[in-house]
Amino acid sequence: MPGFKEVLDKFPEELRDAVIEFHDFLREEYIIKREEFEELKKTVSQLIITIEKLILTQQNSEERLTRLEKAIEQLTIAQQKTEERLNELTIAQQKTEERLNELTIAQQKTEERLNELAVAQKETEERLNELAMAQKETEKRVNELTMAQQKTEDRLNELAVAQQKTEERLNELAVAQKETDKILKELASAQQKTEERVNSLAIAQEKTEKEIRSLTINFKRMQKEFGGLSHSIGFELENQAYKSLPKILKERFGIEIKDRLLRKYIEYPDGKEEEINIYGEARKNGKTIFIIGEAKTHLSKNDIKKFEKRIERLKRVIREEIFPIFVVHSASPEIVKYSLDSGFEVFFSYEF
């Protein structure tokens, strides 16, 4: 059976002082029986075996990290995030070691009772299992990072191909730009010719406008002269109607004019006035009626519609029956029929 020194050498250096203190404590404070001492040695041996496994696992982890660092050195700048993650794993490993040291201190504190030492040992074994699982996760993560690096390289290759296509496209655009410059020069030349043509048209337009203004002045003068002529014809037609209509109305319709026919302004309740070409009070079948007429050189359907609205307005002022008529120089048979259907008699100037 190995001696205490041989057993002590199997502990890591950082644990040896604690083991010596523990040994001295047991020797000074307790009277241990042979069976208890053997059981204690057995427990300590198991602890040593477990720690050796931990050390071996740690060494394997360190070797794996060394290989990992060599692989990481070959990654590109894009893999910097992966290196940061590995640094975080290293920090986590250091924290794990610190945690183990804390467990060792806690174990030293609980070494006063053997049963408590066994419980702490069980917790240590569970922690070691967790570390083993964490190690597997670390290896899995390294494999994932390796695959990610491969995908990154593939992506870089794709980008290189895309960059080449972009350069080819830029070359095509450069050629197209030269063609565009050529077309722009041609357009500039055409634009200059267009401007010259526009200037010529502007001069021609100015001449045209002067001629139009001159024609407008002449047309207005003709309109004025024609309007005077139209009024003269209209007044002449009305004057003929004033003299001839009383006899015609009596013969055809039994209507007797009370005084005479005349031109008159009718005032509405709102103060507006309206001129009536032919106006006169008359009697028919013993009833008072009013003759309301329009004199038109050439009768149209639009004239009839306007006259119809006028009659409707006059009915608000004249309560008696209205006998509406037209006195015209000319009207088509269709217009005469439309007027009669609307209730308006038509008299031609040749009847006077």
Short description:
The chain is α/β, with parallel strands linked by helices and 352 residues long.
Summarize the SSE layout with pairings:
Layout: H1 4-9, H2 13-29, H3 34-73, H4 80-109, H5 114-253, E1 256-257, E2 262-267, E3 273-284, E4 287-298, H6 301-314, E5 321-330, H7 333-341, E6 345-348
Helix pairs in contact: 3-5, 4-5
Describe this structure as you would to a colleague:
The chain has 352 residues and is of the alpha/beta class. The chain folds into two domains: 4-165; 254-351, Trna Endonuclease, Chain: A, domain 1. Helix content is 73%, strand content 13%. Strands 1, 2, 3, 4, 5 and 6 form a six-stranded mixed β-sheet that branches. Helix 3 packs across helix 5 and helix 4 (80-109) packs across helix 5. It starts with a helix and ends with a strand.
List unreliable stretches of 5+ residues: 223-232
Can you tell me the overall shape? elongated
Order of helices and strands: HHHHHEEEEHEHE
Helix content: over 70%
Strand content: 5-15%
| Alpha-beta classification | alpha/beta
Q: Determine the number of helices (DSSP H or I, runs of at least 4 residues).
A: 7
Overall mean confidence score, pLDDT:
81
Give the terminus-to-terminus CA distance: 164 Å
Keywords:
7 helices, single chain, 2 domains, Trna Endonuclease, Chain: A, domain 1, alpha/beta, about 75% helix, six-stranded mixed β-sheet, about 350 residues
